Amino acid sequence: MRINRFLSFSGITSRRKAENLILSGKVEVNGKVITELNCKIDPYKDIVKVNGELVKVSKKRAYLLFYKPRWVLTALGKDPSGLETLDKYFKDFDVRLFPAGRLDFDSEGLILMTNDGEFAHKIHHPSFKIIKRYQVLINPIFDIASKEKVLSGCFLMGKFVKPDDFKVIKNLSDASWIEIAFHEGMKHLVKEYLKKMGYDVKRLIRIAIGDFRLTGVAGSYRWLSQEEISRFKRKYFGEEFGDRNERY
Ligand code: URA
After folding, report:
1. pTM of the predicted model over 0.85
2. CATH number, domain at 120?
3. The CATH number of the domain where 157 resides is what?
4. Residues in the chain where the model's pLDDT stays below 50
5. Cα 166 to ligand 1 centroid, rounded to whole Å
6. What is the pLDDT of residue 124?
7. How far is the CA of 104 from the centre of ligand 1 (A)?
8. Which of 30, 77, 122, 139 is deepest in the core (most CB within 10 A)?
9. Coil, strand, or helix at residue 218?
10. How far is the CA of 209 from the centre of ligand 1 (A)?
């Protein structure tokens, strides 16, 4: 198994971050620091350490849906400037969960937390076309004449993006609630896209990731059942039998 896959599979980090750990010389295999991303290991024989600590393959896969409140950073650990992070909610768990994807500090809504690095990677990879749906308060009020333009897409950071869905939910006196969906996972995508269309985002709530919907109140979470995860994996990743090591 490739070392970065092993590290994400073991639940200590995502695959992308595993690469950074390897490149920065933090990973040892059988007592030797490795910096080659294509290094292969045998998970049952080789001794892998990160920052000097033994990495064990956790067989248990855990997944939950979290309602991230506004003014919480999508990050683990302590923030140097004292902002609230996900640690407030997940620090004392017996499994180490990390967020699959992120929401801005001032955004709220659905975040999937897991220790399954493969799953976290796939959920935000555009090739799997998992649609993320947002309810957004925009200013000024939505001009219905711009609907065609909003639906037809534009270039952002050199890439053509186009919403998978768009509708106006409600007009207020000087703002509108709209719903917009994308399968892309670029940073600040919704804000940047709407800015290009002439609107400022005042509030942003992610209400769905594929078939998983936002429920509960800000700060609450619920574990996903094995059946829910298996169904999701079958539908979006074509994994016939799901993962037998799922925990809940
Ligand atoms: N798009 C954004 O601009 N911000 C988010 O938090 C999520 C999607």
Report:
1. no
2. 3.30.70.580
3. 3.30.70.1560
4. 241-248
5. 15
6. 83
7. 6
8. 122
9. coil
10. 13
**Residue 243: inside a domain, yes or no?**
no
Pocket of ligand 1 contains residue 188 by CB under 6 Å: yes
Same domain, yes or no, for 217 and 102?
yes
Active centre residues (catalytic) = 104
Task: Write out pLDDT tens, residues 201-241.
Answer: 999 999 999 999 999 999 999 999 989 999 999 999 987 54
Contacts of 231 (CB under 8 A, 6+ apart): 211
179 lines ligand 1 (CB under 6 A): no
Q: What residue numbers bound the domain in which 142 lies?
A: 131-209
Q: How far is CA 148 from CA 97, 151, 153, in A?
A: 41, 5, 9
Q: Is the peptide bond before 163 cis (omega within 30 degrees of 0)?
A: no
Q: Which tokens sit at 102?
A: 């992120």
Cβ of 209 closer than 6 Å to ligand 1, yes or no, is no
Tell me which amino acid residue 60 is. Answer: K
Domain count, the chain: 3
